[in-house]
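queue> pop job 88
queue> type: inverse folding (structure -> sequence)
queue> payload:
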């Protein structure tokens, strides 16, 4: 069976590319953030495998909704794809009722990563979860936290944590993680929850991790579960295509995605981001996306998280 699967992969990749037409890979967050860097690690390998130039385009804003909507409106001709984290795909559809696309409009192609959410602070900020809770209670609502936009994973995870510890915090949304980090370093906000690559790139302090167990990347950082707050969240990312994209186009990009994730340059790039490579093919990724949509419908309902929180 493994031989047949590998044969199928090579057959798909042997199909001729469409006249070397450039492929646009839309990233729905700003340049320099984890999503952008993942796309730029993948692009050269995908280009070589597919025999077509890959152009990374940043269409940021509204916690990833702007870029997702752009791809949802694109022609289904195999020339436009989206690299998006979880927010616009599984959280926003349960957070907003005015999305400019339906959650099932975008066609899952392949999952590329899944990374735990890390709560972090800048030098001079809180060092422990107990200190976060203490500062927030003393501030009486004036303790600020950053996110990459309303309805993003950093937003939802932090609101859930604040409610679990009984501390009131003020949400300060930004267009992307670069702006959020600048605000954190200026101490305009006290904490930020995001992917671990953000922490490493900016010499920030890991307070706690939203995971079932400690990470090998940060073995001294406790989980929230260890600290008495049973919250587990991760930020997964993957490629999506416009609605109506032909199955053979999806299959070809999926095969290229699988092969690209095995290349040393991509493996090393993701390692530097402290981002585990997690591959799911189109069918498995579609099922996973659907499960996550339902999961966050329940999370948002039970936590009572609404726009404005």
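queue> result:
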């Amino acid at each position: 069976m493994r031989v047949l699967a590998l044969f199928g992969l090579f057959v798909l990749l042997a199909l001729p590319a469409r006249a070397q037409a450039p492929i646009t890979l839309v990233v729905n967050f700003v340049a320099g953030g984890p999503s952008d860097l993942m796309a730029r690690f993948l692009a050269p390998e995908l280009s070589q495998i597919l025999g077509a130039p890959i152009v990374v385009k940043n269409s940021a804003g509204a916690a990833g909704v702007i870029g997702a909507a752009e791809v949802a409106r694109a022609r289904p001709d195999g020339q436009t794809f989206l690299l998006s984290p979880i927010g616009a795909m599984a959280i926003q559809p349960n957070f907003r009722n005015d999305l400019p696309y339906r959650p099932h409009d975008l066609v899952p192609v392949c999952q590329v990563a899944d990374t735990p959410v890390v709560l972090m602070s800048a030098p001079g900020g809180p060092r422990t979860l107990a200190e976060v809770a203490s500062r927030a209670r003393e501030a009486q609502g004036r303790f600020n936290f950053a996110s990459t936009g309303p309805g993003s994973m950093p937003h939802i995870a932090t609101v859930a944590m604040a409610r679990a510890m009984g501390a009131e915090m003020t949400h300060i949304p930004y267009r992307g993680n670069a702006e959020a980090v600048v605000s954190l370093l200026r101490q305009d906000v006290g904490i930020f929850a995001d992917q671990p690559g953000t922490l490493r790139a900016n010499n920030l302090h890991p307070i706690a991790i939203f995971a079932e167990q400690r990470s090998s990347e940060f073995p001294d950082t406790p989980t929230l579960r260890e600290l008495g707050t049973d919250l587990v969240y991760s930020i997964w990312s993957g490629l999506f295509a416009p609605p109506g994209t032909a199955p053979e186009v999806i299959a070809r990009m999926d095969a290229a995605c699988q092969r690209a994730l095995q290349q040393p340059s991509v493996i090393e790039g993701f390692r530097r981001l402290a981002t585990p490579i997690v591959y799911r093919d189109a069918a498995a990724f579609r099922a996973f996306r659907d499960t996550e949509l339902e999961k966050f419908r329940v999370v948002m309902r039970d936590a009572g998280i609404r726009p404005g929180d």
